[in-house]
Amino acid sequence: MIFSFTHGGRKIELDVASGVYYPREDSILLAKALMKEPVSGKILDLGCGCGFLSVLLTSRGEVTAADIDSAAVKNTKHNAEKLGLKIRVVQSNLFSNIPESFDYIVFNPPYLPVAGEDKIWSGGSTGREVISKFASQCQSHLKDLGKVFLVFSSLTGEKEVLELFKDMDCEIVARKKIPWEELLVLKATKRPKLIYEE
Ligand SMILES: C[S@@+](CC[C@H](N)C(=O)[O-])C[C@H]1O[C@@H](n2cnc3c(N)ncnc32)[C@H](O)[C@@H]1O
Question: Can you name the CATH fold of 2-189?
Fold first, then answer.
């Protein structure tokens, strides 16, 4: 399937392979929130799917795209090559193959509270299984004042998700009501280490 969008006055067409997430309202809400921010530097697009956010973010900085799913990795590599864009693409379960730190990490994770094996949708029975692991690992992969942009649903639990990121400075920067749920974009900033001098 083809997913097309306009960016910088240019129409861009992405191929979306079978079984790979076709960008939807959540992807678009996150994309719009990111385009309003001064995103720059080293950027990680975690759970890249077909590479929609990675492609957009190449206009802002040096992009690494990662996904647990080999089909998504192949799909993002294909779209980057087709568009002549430089994107480093790695297969990784969260940060398992990503040792370095970033200025920005963007993630449209599986957040729906449905138990099951579908890694695209299923965030386990609470919807927060992947988000919770991500929250406990992300600060080790962020530079000081580095930022996470994460999209999730009211079905995932707004208060509960904010609690997972309580060690960071959090703000909800976008909301959109869709049938049955509201989508939200969290911006979480890593606090710098305090250095005391005598
Ligand atoms: C909802 S899709 C988002 C795709 C794309 N970023 C977008 O916004 O259109 C979630 C993606 O996260 C990936 N994913 C799920 N669990 C993951 C994990 N533990 N580590 C890395 N990627 C993961 C899935 O394979 C899927 O491609």
Answer: Rossmann fold (3.40.50)
